[in-house]
Amino acid sequence: MERLGKYRQIVRQLLTSLAAIGYCESNSNVECQFICDTENDHYQLLDIGWEGYNRIYNCFIHIDIKDGKIWIQENMTENDLACAY
Questions:
Q1: 12, 69, 71, 79 — which has fewest CB within 10 A?
Q2: Would you identify the CATH topology of the domain 2-76?
Q3: Structure confidence at residue 30 (pLDDT)
């Protein structure tokens, strides 16, 4: 259980830091959301909102913790998340 807690902490810290440096859209009508579901171990960083009449929904990063391992389901950034920690 200690390792699972450490993995959760690492993933939260990584996505929080990426959200802070501005991976999300700079438009004021687009919100950067960090989704953190620790009960089911799903974590996402995404843009959501509107740009004029266009709906914005971009999932930049999706990470799951499954079977004691960190799964990078989606990484639409230039960062190599597997080497981040």
A1: 69
A2: TATA-Binding Protein (3.30.310)
A3: 84
